[in-house]
Amino acid sequence: MADEQDASNSTSPTIYDVARACGVAASTVSRTFSRPGRVNVETADRIRRVAAEMGYRTNTVARALPTSQTALLAMVVPTVPDRFFIEVIRGAKAAAIAAGYTLVVADAGLSADAERAAVNRLIPVVDGVILAGSLLPDSSIRVAAKQRPTVVLNRAMTDVASVLTDSADGMRQAVEHLTALDHRELTYLAGPEASWSDGMRWRSFKVETQRLGLRARRIGPIAPTQAAGMAAASTFAEQMTSGVIAFNDFIAVGFVSGLSRLGVRVPDDVSVIGFDNTAAGFSNLPLTSIAAPLPHLGGQAVRTLMRQIAAARPGRPDAPGAVRPTRLPAQLVVRSSTAPRARRDSNAPGSGERAA
Amino acid sequence: MADEQDASNSTSPTIYDVARACGVAASTVSRTFSRPGRVNVETADRIRRVAAEMGYRTNTVARALPTSQTALLAMVVPTVPDRFFIEVIRGAKAAAIAAGYTLVVADAGLSADAERAAVNRLIPVVDGVILAGSLLPDSSIRVAAKQRPTVVLNRAMTDVASVLTDSADGMRQAVEHLTALDHRELTYLAGPEASWSDGMRWRSFKVETQRLGLRARRIGPIAPTQAAGMAAASTFAEQMTSGVIAFNDFIAVGFVSGLSRLGVRVPDDVSVIGFDNTAAGFSNLPLTSIAAPLPHLGGQAVRTLMRQIAAARPGRPDAPGAVRPTRLPAQLVVRSSTAPRARRDSNAPGSGERAA
DNA sequence: CACGGGCCGACAATCGGTTGCCAAAACTAT
DNA sequence: ATAGTTTTGGCAACCGATTGTCGGCCCGTG
Predict the structure, then answer these.
(1) Domains of chain A, earliest start first
(2) Residue B9: which pLDDT band, with cuts at 50, 70 and 90?
(3) Which first-to-last residue range defines the signal peptide (chains A, B) (predicted)?
(4) Nearest chain A alpha carbon to B90
(5) Which residue is closest, via its CA, to the C1' of C19?
(6) Is residue B268 pLDDT above 90, yes or no?
(7) CA atoms within 13 Å, Cβ hemisphere of B264
(8) Beta strands B288-291; B326-328: pairing state
(9) What is the CB neighbour count within 10 angstroms for residue A139?
(10) pLDDT of B356 above 60
(11) pLDDT of residue B296
């Protein structure tokens, strides 16, 4: 008894301690926890009871050595998460817990190098990695994917699993919405050049405006911040269009304040649509935005990852060749930053060649 | 040669593979990396070169088993991080990397139970834990601290290391600022009841107002969101004071919009001060706020943790008895949400018993 | 030339589980 | 009662590092 007190006092008990206390072999204790049906119910009950009494908790790092499974999932996000990723993380976390995994979040710093460092640090310790808004080139991502199951978010890759919002369809909805409001000339406020999403959105913007026979302009690249959006307003003022679609809500919100500073009113003079629906209740003007199903995005990423982890178990060490991206629907949320085009078409400076 | 190809192909090389390739014992390879001077320079160089060629990377979980050191630090934050924690995390991350550690962030869900679960999952895998804005009762924190070095943020504890902003002094600066502007009646917009910080701030508020002979009111508890802050404006309107200090900037920003909706102008009619300085450029009105040195807070937490980890190494398993909280200075940042008290004192409904 | 001391590398135990294989025990069927 | 099958628990070999201990080698000095 004194002996057991001492043991429990110094370090936490191991399966060997439990085994000795129960008069069974350590392997039996191990199986009691890891292989449910394998041990006689009575024996298992007794072991469980004693283990609980002794305060036994299985040492996850010891377990990870032979099985190379840590029940940890890593999600790497650019620098520190903004509203967008917050929602994604929420969904991912729920899905991870549901699957018996723990999700840890690491921020990637601001450079590709810092991100690579973060990934390298984490990869040996986790069972899978979700790369969200990665700054890494495709080749680096492939390297990571070769070592651990990997899923990329909002970025299409042919040889690494990916989950993304159908922003092309979101863009279609946005452009059609503006068209229905009689806007015939649209400007796209572009995001950072390095952003994969931005390229995607701009491409869709061109496709849709062309399809509907609209005039399309583009301003940018613009950093994804309110300040940069605000600054972009003056560039825009030199040659205005009645409809504007921004790379994301941060830019859109800043842009709207920039316009109001210039005396241009939203939505009276200009209709503005953002992306990602992250600005709800952010500024005074409720912003029309293309909403991505953020938590679903995260959840889906985790589920895709889990499938890969399960598949990697038996023989195949990696790359199942080509994989098709999972595409989740976007939805336009109409608020009060969009309105029918005003009839009068002078008033604003440089309103230029409007088609009457 | 074909043999080595196969080996490197299937799984990543181990020290044994490197040792065989070099014709030395595995222990020598191990020491080459962990105990610099212990191995002959030539031998070490050769081993390092071969290891690099083979792409050897030390398996951190295997290393963690005998040493029980994972070089991982966990920071647990309530639900998903807002602007406040984003800055704290940034500072903590930098400090962790500087010390050769990796910081992982886990969100605690919304309940104490979820937080406990998160902590329990993480504790066996990390070398130390930082609890930020924890919802846990002191007793649970003590339990965690008994298992791993632990530091709590913005919460004073006598037997667990803590790092916190000197919000009492921040409150003093805020109240003195308002006094200097001739405000004689102040309202405190209280945050969530469970919040340790809120209790602290309210207490300081009372102390300071009393010291300066001001009238003090309190409204709340209010959820730390803009929406809740906005809603609080109508309660406030029933009995206004010319000066207001809010639990944090979210509440303050919402409160200001709520006031403007009611036709009360800031800072003309009411001066408002927030806490944490997280609303920079958030709304149209630059908010006067009590700024905490957020990144320093995170960095200091990590450094405190590292000291504990180092101390825990030799003999002492835990609790060094009583520890004094580390207090970091707060600073009032004056912007345009505060102004001298207006002379006229009717106009607003229920402006009540003003003294003069 | 012999002896003491440093330096260096190897052996083997250990961290705490997991799991393939085997044998004893219990049960079923003939 | 015997042979055949299924449970069930134990033995021991891993997983990939770390580290205490020991013996061999080389050097210097008496």
Answers:
(1) 2-58 (1.10.260.40), 67-165+294-327 (3.40.50.2300), 167-292 (3.40.50.2300)
(2) very low
(3) none
(4) A80
(5) A27
(6) yes
(7) 30
(8) unpaired
(9) 7
(10) no
(11) 94
